[in-house]
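Entry:
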Amino acid sequence: MRRVGAVLLLKPILSLALTMHHIASRRVVRAAARAAGPRKAAREPCVVEDVEGLCGAYDTILLDQFGVVHDGKVPYDGAPELVRRLQRAGKRVVVLSNSSKRRRDTIERLEAMGCGAGTLRDRADTPDGRPAISAVTSGDLVHDALAARARGAPAPLLDGVAGPAGRGLRAFVFGNGDDDEAYLVSCGVAPARVEEADCLLARGLFATLPGGPLAWDADDACDDVLAAAAARGLPLVVANPDLVRPDGRASPMPGRLMARYVTRFGGAAHPVGKPYPYIYEEALRRCAPAGRVLAVGDSMAHDVAGANRAGVDSALVCWGIHAADVGVAPGSAAVPLDAA
């Protein structure tokens, strides 16, 4: 296990701490700065010998996957082993992801990477007496809301999305180019031209349905579609509000489409996922009683901001999308504490 990372450990609103950990040596260096209060602020770094100590004070870990556990294809050195150790220690590990796919994809991916046993149950599942990894994805929450709408059941996530009762929605879909057709069929959504659609649905920016492969080469690549949708007052349902990839590149991500639709065309958006409240509410509801909760992720705008809104502590993995900003490189022993 060779990976070195820097982590910002944050208390909601009140405190900030910079943490560096080396999984192999299990050393943590922490510099804390608390808001003004009755106790004197702690500003000097201290050393914590066990990296698991970062999670040891918590009962439930809300764990991001892309940029934290893996890069989309390959797990980071030491990450699967650490997740398994958390399970052995009795911690509830809930993967909280802005993936536009169903949660089964996340569980199967992590199991294949050696992260330990997973579960598709909403409540605690303890094979061999250890809490199984569960997952809540933005794509799954949107899927369930769309399927409920198709059944005529309540779907609060889609409040404000108009459409005739008794049938699934018709949507112009920005797809991930992978599982779009199966996803739409299973939740009762029919792809439709903008002129006939009830809404826009953004799962990715690699294809459109109807249509085909999408060549997204600039933020104005789909302005004709967005302008036509805004003219009809169509809401945009966003199943992945991310702005950049885990490697920090500004590649096609649905969050960028949402930002353009709202700011350039005055459209209405229904984003689902981090940093918006519903995904945290669902995660905490499903693992109740959650006890003490720590959210771990690599995005200030999504993981940290969302955790702060939800009132839980957060740990920012700085060798994710903010690596260049913080000056932390994987494999480097140098940690610029003044980067905070």
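The longest strand covers residues 4-11.
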